[in-house]
Amino acid sequence: MAAKYIPLTGAESAAYAMKQINPDVLAAYPITPQTPIVMKFSEYVANGEVDTVSITVESEHSAMSATVGAAAAGARAMTATAANGLALMWEIVYIAASTRLPIVMGIVNRALSGPINIHGDHSDTMGARDAGWIQVYSENNQEVYDNYFMALRIAENEDVLLPVMVCQDGFITSHSVENVMPAPDQVVKEFIGKKKFKGLLTAEKPFTIGPLDLQDYYFEHKKQQHEAMKKVFPVIEAIQKEFAEKFGRKYDVIEEYRTEDADIVIMGMSSVMGTVKEVIDAAREKGIKVGAVKPRFFRPFPGEYLKKILSKFKAVGILDRSDSFGSLPPLFTETAAVFYTSSTKPLVKSYIHGLGGRDTTVKLLEKVVTDLQKLSETGEGNFTSEYLGVRE
Amino acid sequence: MKEIKKSWKNIPIGGNILEAGNSKNYITGTWRTFIPRLDKEKCVNCFQCWMFCPDNSISIVENKMVGFDYDHCKGCGMCVSVCPTKAITMEKEEK
After folding, report:
1. What is the CATH number of the domain that holds B42?
2. Which is nearest to A146 in space by CA: A24, A258, A34, A246?
3. Is there a domain that residue A159 lies in?
């Protein structure tokens, strides 16, 4: 493979991956900060670089509806959105998952209003965490690019057949240029293969998709979704392994950074983890035994993995880029719940950070390291939550 | 009339229905409270009931109204209201 980096924004990385996937159908509506994905992809369509039928629709509700229709008819169908767009397609987001359609949707995470804000946080997809979609979060542009191919394979796996959201942080990732190493088209083509059709909708073989499903069978279909999610992690592991062989980049369900001898770790998802790693490198210089843990997937929730990994540490600071008003934030609560029956568990502290695109700076994360040192020594602040860097 | 309900392990995913024309397998007759009865003496085979029945539950054999498909008749009474000779009556169904 001729290794060559090209400079791409996160949004362009997504569009480049989509170009190489060459889906049968793309139906999308522009919304900041997702717009450059579909804008770039539309260029590929206009230039004849893809065979995709691009459907311009009047809203995200229609975008997801068209994507569902295309996927149900047997096509490889994709879309992309953000925040308020995701909210507008809400009803069909659930229908896509419960109808078991392997759609890949690019998400550029943005604060879901209000007051209105166009910058990055995870309030949009965290709200959609019970919609039945698989969610993968990307730290940087390379990961964005790579995740699209893995997402497609996971979605279309016959044991899974569930849609996947490939998330990246609004502006921080989507609009920042980084060096990305794309794979040759042929490598992608071989990796993703052709979509296996159960059968197109035809007059010769009619069947019904999305019928009314009441008290007598709905419950059974929910159980099927529940069980399909349980099969996802073995599939992810196999696909990540195959991806490493074909693309030369290795991913795990949970990425660990300098954790071998760590006493304390910072855990979080997406772009903030780049800053976290820098803070950890600096703290290590000072002899502080700190590492980082980055779950790449939030749905299905990698609880068993986290239980195994986090039980090694004295204290864990959990960064959530969203709040669950009236409760504790999602990554924190779900992680804490994993340890309910464990005798060995770390002390935990929750940080709500970066809402509405507020920068989570090196300085703020240095405070987290100091906090965690104190927590690990005294136990003070265990199971509490704070807004990291808010003006008091 | 009893339908055997299947486990989540052996039904198509996503609520998909793989064969066409299967609504006849869905026994809606169990919903009924009142049941239509036909008095053949009064029936003139005008088929008004057949035209109006919302569930295709009027049985016609050799151009004669012979009775009802009780597996699917929901007991709405539409046939009674359109029958010009009062050949159909509704009675409370004992279950």
Report:
1. 3.30.70.20
2. A246
3. yes
Nearest chain B residue to A206, by CA:
B20
Which tokens in the block code for residue A159?
């044991």
Q: Which residue of A has its CA nearest to B7?
A: A220
ipTM of predicted assembly, 2 dp: 0.86
Sole residue written with tokens 């004849």: A48
CB–CB of B16 and A209 under 8 A? yes
A206 contacts chain B (CB < 8 A): yes
Contacts of A314 (CB under 8 A, 6+ apart): A263, A264, A346, A347, A376
pLDDT by residue for chain A (392 residues), tens only, comes to: 457 999 999 999 999 999 999 999 999 999 999 999 999 999 999 999 999 999 999 999 999 999 999 999 889 999 999 999 999 999 999 999 999 999 999 999 999 988 999 999 999 999 999 999 999 999 999 999 999 999 999 999 999 999 999 999 999 999 999 999 999 999 999 999 998 766 667 788 888 899 999 998 999 999 999 999 999 999 999 999 999 999 999 999 999 999 999 999 999 999 999 999 999 999 999 999 999 999 999 999 999 999 999 999 999 999 999 999 999 999 999 999 999 999 999 999 999 999 999 999 999 999 999 999 999 999 999 999 999 999 99
Q: Do A278 and A165 fall into the same domain?
A: no
B85 within a domain of the structure (yes/no): yes
**Whether residue A130 is found in the same domain as residue A224:** yes
What 3 state SS string does A308-326 have? HHHCCCCEEEEEECCCCCC
- The reply to whether A45 falls in a domain is yes
Q: Which of B5, B6, B16 sits opposite A207 (nearest CB)?
A: B16
> Does B4 lie at the interface with A, CB-CB under 8 angstroms?
no
* B4 chain-A contacts, CB cut-off 8 A: none
**A107 and A197 share one domain:** yes
Residue A209 contacts B where some CB pair is shorter than 8 Å: yes
Structural domain boundaries, residue B78: 28-92
Characterize A4-41 residue by residue with b for buried, 16 or more Cβ atoms within 10 angstroms of its Cβ, and e for exposed: eeeebbbbbbbbbbbbbbbbbbbbbbbbbbbbbbbebb
Neighboring chain A residues of B14 at a CB cutoff of 8 Å: 98-101, 161, 209-210, 221, 224
Helices A185-192 and A232-247: crossing angle in degrees, nearest 10, is: 150
Q: Which domain holds residue A275?
A: 254-387
Which CATH number covers residue A306?
A: 3.40.50.920
Query: Does B5 sit within 8 Å of A207, measured CB to CB?
Result: no
B95 near A CB under 8 A = no
Q: Would you call B11 and A211 a contact, using CB atoms and an 8 Å cutoff?
A: no
**Report field, pTM of the whole predicted structure over 0.95:** no
B12 within a domain of the structure (yes/no): no
Same domain, A259 and A329: yes
The reply to whether residue A98 touches residue B15, judged by beta carbons under 8 angstroms, is yes
Residue in chain B closest to A228 (alpha carbons) equals B13
Tell whether B14 is covered by a domain. Answer: no
Is there a single domain that holds both residue A117 and residue A204? yes
